[in-house]
Amino acid sequence: MSILKLPVLILIAYLLGSLPFGYLFVKYFKKTDVRANGTGNIGATNAMLVGGKILGIITLMLDVAKGSAAVILAKVYGGGDWTIILCALAVVVGHDFSVFLNFKGGKGISTSGGAMLIIDPALTIICLLLYLLFLLSTRYVIMSTLMVMALLPLMLWLVSYGFNYILFGILLAALAWYVHRADVRRFFAGEETRLDEAWSKYSK
Length: 204
Description:
- This protein is an all-alpha fold.
- The chain has one domain (5-202).
- The chain is built from 11 helices and no strands.
């Protein structure tokens, strides 16, 4: 791989991640800013709450797809593990800090899942099952997500990934916790709503 190719791939991955599908769909079809309604997030959950199930599902699929696309591009045109890791991080950073939204954005979980789906499909399924287990046990969406993200580096180590992928897991988890920092503060202050309460509140 040429020395110029890696920065180009990282830039493409970042721009892919920056595409704010939830914001665009709700703006176009519902004539409103998703950031000013519901939870204020541009991701699939809030797109569903503000724009309806169809827009939410389409947003989810495309947010996952852009994470997967970035890793596929890295595999096809780069090939090395570090290229894959850097592009996977770039696409999530793009979603979280979109150049098209003044470097603001979503929380990056769906896009992270899309990237991981290409890196290791089996491990991604395990993460999803763990998330569902935590969600059924706690009824807290955000904390269930963050617990899985916190466990990701450990799971990568347990299935014998090397230092580079474990570092990737640590960085991905740290990024997730950072963008959810306000949610974490609400949780520890006893102000975070449970799944059923949130749905009832925001779907009215």
